[in-house]
Every structure is written in structure tokens, then in C-alpha cells.
């Protein structure tokens, strides 16, 4: 879990003992502390912060992959911000090619620093940084190229807007509210990370992390997040089969498990080909 940095200033609330606005995400809890999120001054401040964030943010929610799954959208609705006074040219950035799995749209950045803090502190990566100063900062690599960390895919969920998005989902895209999610376990290795796969029209479209405090916590490796394409292959075996001579006999799940158990019991030495995908 990332520590608070106070970069976005959306958690500034009224604190009566000091008589001024404080950053509640940066203020330690103490006895007798009273913090109000409903104070009128605090609400007006949060609305003004959203307006600042939207000064250079593109109005591309209809085509943004994170539309409907965006923290900035949630904050805009929560604060009631509905009118933007800025009518001038927005700042624009050049996007980078970050490889086959992650798309980069830097113009959507709100400079929360989540990405670089996660990448350095948790993913132990060194090739993603922040460059620039003041209101003109850039989050990316020194040059185009695939991110080196095997846990870089978590940037897709960590980013509160649509700077980093899932390319594998974009190939067969749909809004998150159109998918059905179910709890599952990753099959890519023996660790058993908890995942939440999203399905649409009988196809697996997206893999998200499912928190488990004793296994994977909040994160997944890139193999577990992006390596699901084989599930949608049309020629993938979808039922257990047994070879008898030159023929293949279809079995149900109970018959397959019983047959495998019989082979193991009757054989002193068994040689077989195993795969983490065989459980499908």
C-alpha cells in the first residue's frame, strides 16, 4: 500500500482545532481530533482543485479506456464541479511506446506520482521516472521501450486516470460496467495469486488483481495479468479427452479425474507432460 504524499490535494478537510484546512491524508490521527469532509470551505477547496486538475486534462472521456473506472471522474462528480472557466490551449505531451502490453497517454496525467512511487518502491524498477518541474512534469522512460520490471502491468490499476492502460484489453475493448467479474486464482505458476477475470460475450477480456494479504497483496506479475490470450483460442480443448488407439473419447470432469487417479495408482513410474494451463 502506497503511503500518502498529498500530491493531488483531494483529501483536504476542515479541522476545527487549528481553524484551517488540513491535508487529512497527511495528518496523523490523535485523540480529540475532529475532521469534517462536509465543511463548506473544504468542499469548495476540493472543487477548485478539480478545476485546476482539469485545466490541462483532455475532455476525452468517451474514448478513454478508463471511462467509468476513473478516480478523476469520481472526484468531479463528488465535488459537483460542472463548469470550466479555462478557454485557452491545453498543454500537450508526446506519448511513449512502452511495449506490447501498456499504452501511454501522458496528456491525461494529474501528477499524483503514484506510478513512479510504486515502480521504484514496490516493483524495484529503475527505468520509469519523472522529468521536468512545476506544472510541466513528464512521467515516462528516458526513451521509448518496454518497461523492464516484470510487475509493470500494475501501473494500469495504480494510475487514477488513463495514462497507463491495458493494451490487451483495448484490442477487444468494452466498458468495465459491461463485463462480468468473478473471483479466481492465477494459473500461470504455483504461487496462486488471487485474480478477478472480466468476461464479455463468452470471451476473457481483462485480468485484474484481487487482494489477498497473504499471497499477492494488491499486485500481479505481468505474466498473470496479460498472459490470458490462450483462453480465447478457438481450437483450445474445452473438455477432457482420452486417447484410445487412434480415437479421442470425450470425458466429463469426474471421469477424467478418476481415470488420471487410476493411472497413478496402477503405475509404479509415470512420465507425463505437465503445464499450469492444463487445469483449464
TrEMBL record:
<dbReference type="InterPro" id="IPR000283">
    <property type="entry name" value="NADH_UbQ_OxRdtase_75kDa_su_CS"/>
</dbReference>
<keyword id="KW-0411">Iron-sulfur</keyword>
<dbReference type="Pfam" id="PF04879">
    <property type="entry name" value="Molybdop_Fe4S4"/>
</dbReference>
<dbReference type="GO" id="GO:0051539">
    <property type="term" value="F:4 iron, 4 sulfur cluster binding"/>
</dbReference>
<keyword id="KW-0001">2Fe-2S</keyword>
<dbReference type="GO" id="GO:0046872">
    <property type="term" value="F:metal ion binding"/>
</dbReference>
<dbReference type="InterPro" id="IPR019574">
    <property type="entry name" value="NADH_UbQ_OxRdtase_Gsu_4Fe4S-bd"/>
</dbReference>
<dbReference type="GO" id="GO:0042773">
    <property type="term" value="P:ATP synthesis coupled electron transport"/>
</dbReference>
<dbReference type="InterPro" id="IPR050123">
    <property type="entry name" value="Prok_molybdopt-oxidoreductase"/>
</dbReference>
<dbReference type="Pfam" id="PF10588">
    <property type="entry name" value="NADH-G_4Fe-4S_3"/>
</dbReference>
<dbReference type="GO" id="GO:0016020">
    <property type="term" value="C:membrane"/>
</dbReference>
<dbReference type="GO" id="GO:0003954">
    <property type="term" value="F:NADH dehydrogenase activity"/>
</dbReference>
<protein>
    <submittedName>
        <fullName>NADH dehydrogenase I chain G</fullName>
        <ecNumber>1.6.5.3</ecNumber>
        <ecNumber>1.6.99.5</ecNumber>
    </submittedName>
</protein>
<keyword id="KW-0408">Iron</keyword>
<dbReference type="InterPro" id="IPR054351">
    <property type="entry name" value="NADH_UbQ_OxRdtase_ferredoxin"/>
</dbReference>
<feature type="domain" description="4Fe-4S Mo/W bis-MGD-type">
    <location>
        <begin position="179"/>
        <end position="235"/>
    </location>
</feature>
<dbReference type="GO" id="GO:0051537">
    <property type="term" value="F:2 iron, 2 sulfur cluster binding"/>
</dbReference>
<keyword id="KW-0560">Oxidoreductase</keyword>
<keyword id="KW-0004">4Fe-4S</keyword>
<dbReference type="InterPro" id="IPR006963">
    <property type="entry name" value="Mopterin_OxRdtase_4Fe-4S_dom"/>
</dbReference>
<dbReference type="Pfam" id="PF22117">
    <property type="entry name" value="Fer4_Nqo3"/>
</dbReference>
<feature type="domain" description="4Fe-4S His(Cys)3-ligated-type">
    <location>
        <begin position="41"/>
        <end position="80"/>
    </location>
</feature>
<dbReference type="GO" id="GO:0008137">
    <property type="term" value="F:NADH dehydrogenase (ubiquinone) activity"/>
</dbReference>
<keyword id="KW-0479">Metal-binding</keyword>
Amino acid at each position: 500500500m502506497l503511503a500518502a504524499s498529498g500530491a493531488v490535494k483531494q483529501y483536504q478537510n476542515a479541522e476545527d482545532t487549528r481553524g484551517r484546512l488540513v491535508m487529512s491524508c497527511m495528518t496523523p490521527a490523535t485523540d480529540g481530533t475532529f475532521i469534517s469532509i462536509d465543511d463548506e470551505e473544504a468542499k469548495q477547496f476540493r472543487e477548485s482543485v478539480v478545476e485546476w486538475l482539469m485545466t490541462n486534462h483532455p475532455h476525452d472521456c468517451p474514448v478513454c479506456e478508463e471511462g467509468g473506472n476513473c478516480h478523476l471522474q469520481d472526484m468531479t462528480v463528488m465535488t459537483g464541479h460542472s463548469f470550466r472557466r479555462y478557454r485557452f490551449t491545453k498543454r500537450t505531451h508526446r506519448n511513449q511506446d512502452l511495449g506490447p502490453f501498456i499504452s501511454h497517454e501522458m496528456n491525461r496525467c494529474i501528477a499524483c506520482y503514484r506510478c513512479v512511487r510504486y515502480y521504484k518502491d514496490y516493483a524495484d524498477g529503475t527505468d520509469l521516472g519523472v522529468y521536468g518541474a512545476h506544472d510541466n512534469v513528464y512521467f515516462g522512460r528516458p526513451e521509448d521501450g518496454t518497461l523492464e520490471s516484470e510487475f509493470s502491468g500494475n501501473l494500469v490499476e495504480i494510475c487514477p486516470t488513463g495514462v497507463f492502460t491495458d493494451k490487451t484489453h483495448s484490442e477487444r475493448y468494452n466498458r468495465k460496467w459491461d463485463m462480468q467479474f468473478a473471483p479466481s486464482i492465477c494459473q500461470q505458476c504455483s504461487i496462486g495469486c488471487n485474480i478477478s477475470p472480466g468476461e464479455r460475450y463468452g470471451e476473457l477480456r481483462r485480468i485484474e488483481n484481487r487482494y489477498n494479504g497473504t499471497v499477492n497483496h494488491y499486485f500481479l506479475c505481468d505474466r498473470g495479468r496479460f498472459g490470458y490470450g490462450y483462453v480465447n483460442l478457438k481450437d483450445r480443448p474445452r473438455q477432457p479427452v482420452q486417447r484410445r488407439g487412434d480415437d479421442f473419447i470425450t470425458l466429463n470432469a469426474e471421469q477424467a479425474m478418476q481415470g488420471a487417479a487410476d493411472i497413478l495408482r496402477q503405475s509404479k513410474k509415470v512420465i507425463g507432460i505437465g503445464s499450469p494451463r492444463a487445469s483449464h
